[in-house]
TrEMBL record:
PANTHER family: MYELOID-DERIVED GROWTH FACTOR (PTHR31230:SF1), MYELOID-DERIVED GROWTH FACTOR MYDGF (PTHR31230). This is MYDGF factor. One of its GO terms (biological process) is positive regulation of endothelial cell proliferation. It comes from the Eukaryota. Residues 1-30 form the signal peptide.
Length: 175
C-alpha cells in the first residue's frame, strides 16, 4: 500500500505514523549495546554533491534500509537515518532526513529501499520540520512507491528532498 489516497485515510496515517515512529525511536534509543550494523537508532552520514551515485545503509536484524541518491551543488550536508522495529515486530521503519530542515542540494535522483518487509506507508518531503516550520511533502506525482522502494519519478521530481519516511510491514509467521 502506498500513501493513502483518500482524505480520511490520510488523517488516519497522519495520526498513526508519528506515534509509531516515536515508539520506534524510543525503542531504538533503548536498544544500545547490540552488534554493530544491527543496532536500532540514528546514524549520521554525509550527503555528498558531485553528481555521483552514493548509498547509505542500516540494518536491524532481518531488515535493512538503503538510501541511494545523486545530488549537485553546494558542499556536503549532514543527514541522519533512523531504523527501528515495533515492539511486536510487526513494523519496520526507516526515516532519512536533514536535521536542519531544508537541503540546499539539488537531487537528481533518490531511492529508499527496504529489505525483509513490504512498504505500508511512505512519504517524501521537500522540507523537514524544524523549529516552527512544518514538514512540506512532495507532490504525489513527484515520487512513486512500490512494495519495497520509494523513489523519485523521472521527469516529475523537482530536485528538492529533505526527508523520507518509510513504514513497512514485516512478515508474520502464523501459528
Amino acid at each position: 500500500m502506498a500513501a493513502p489516497s483518500r482524505r480520511s485515510g490520510r488523517r488516519v496515517w497522519a495520526a498513526l505514523v508519528p506515534a509509531a515512529l516515536l515508539c520506534l525511536a524510543a525503542r531504538a534509543a533503548a536498544g544500545a549495546g547490540t552488534a554493530p550494523g544491527t543496532e536500532p537508532g540514528t546514524a549520521e552520514f554525509d550527503v555528498r554533491p558531485g553528481g555521483e551515485v552514493h548509498s547509505f545503509s542500516r540494518s536491524l536484524g532481518d531488515y535493512s534500509c538503503t538510501f541511494t541518491y545523486s545530488a549537485q551543488g553546494g558542499t556536503n550536508e549532514q543527514w541522519q537515518m533512523n531504523v527501528g522495529v515495533s515492539e511486536d515486530s510487526g513494523l519496520f521503519s526507516c526515516s532519512i532526513w536533514r536535521p536542519q530542515g531544508k537541503s540546499y542540494l539539488f537531487f537528481t535522483q533518490f531511492k529508499a529501499e527496504v529489505k525483509g518487509a513490504k512498504i505500508e506507508y511512505a512519504m517524501a518531503y521537500s522540507q523537514a520540520a524544524v523549529g516552527a516550520q512544518n514538514d512540506i511533502p512532495l507532490k504525489q506525482e513527484e515520487f512513486e512507491v512500490t512494495e519495497t522502494t520509494v523513489s523519485h519519478r523521472e521527469g516529475k521530481f523537482r530536485f528538492e528532498l529533505s526527508k523520507l519516511v518509510v513504514v513497512a510491514k514485516t512478515p508474520r509467521d502464523e501459528l
